[in-house]
Amino acid sequence: MRRWFLSLAAATLPALAAAHPVPCPPLPCPPPPPRYEFRTITQYRTEYHTEFREVQRTVTRRVPETVMTQVQETVMVPQWREEARQRTVMVPVTRMETRQQEVVRTEWQQQQRERTVMVPETQLVERQHRVLVPELRQEVRERTVLVPEVRMEERARPITTVRPVPETHTEQVVTAAKVAVPVCDPCTGWAAVVCQVVPQVHAVNVTTVRPVAETHLQRYAVAVPTVRPERQAITVAVPSVREEVRSERVPVTTLRPTRQTYTASVPVTRRELQPVTVPVREMQPQVENYTERVCEMRPEVRTRAVPTTVFREVSEVVTERVPVVVPVTVPCQVTVAVPCGCP
What we know:
The protein is mainly β. 5% of the residues lie in helices and 87% in strands. Strand 1 and strand 2 (191-340) form a beta hairpin.
């Protein structure tokens, strides 16, 4: 409600001021700005550190132990025994039996028969036919052939020759020279002159031959093969054919039907009964005795040692490191702005 009145007053005051203008009072002097000075003070804050403390606790553990336990069990033991039994088996028996069998016999009979055969007859008949006879006629033709020629051509090629050039230079030569050297005898103290070979270096002029390569052009003639076109007239044989009618006697074979009598062997079959002896196989029952091994399972109580794991509770005191949060007061330097008096 208060906000609604404030908003209504704020909306109506400008309208009233526009309807009734009021002279503005003089503005008061602004207050002087406050002054601040920065000071460093010591404050204390609380920090939490984690520390580990050793705490003794009693722990109960289960220790496994293996104990041999006597266990009785019933097992089925197989036992074999021989037992006489009888069985009926079918034994094959073969006996001979006489039976009547129908047999088909074939006999050949001679019979006179007639047949029509085609007898070939050959006659010479004159016939005409056209043939192509090959001919060769001579014809003169012209052709262009390439005639080989050889012309001499002068060419130049660079040739490198080696020319010896004598050179004289000075070399250092070591020779042996005899020089008189004074020597003192350490025993007698007498001085003597001894001839001693000493190497000496002399400058000697030596002439050597140095090969110098020189290049010059050499002229030589080369035979260059070429060809030139030349027209030649040649006579060629041109093959051709001509048509010619020829007559010749050709043998012509024709077939003439003729009646012919011949004797044929005709098979004639007849059936008759014939006694035969055949083996007949029969199965007869027969009782036979046999011995068979029979397996029987007999219960038997046995005792055996079985390793059994047993858990035993053991209490022991252990020392553990437990984390503990400890509050610690830590000083710190803080810079603050403090207002001071007016100037």
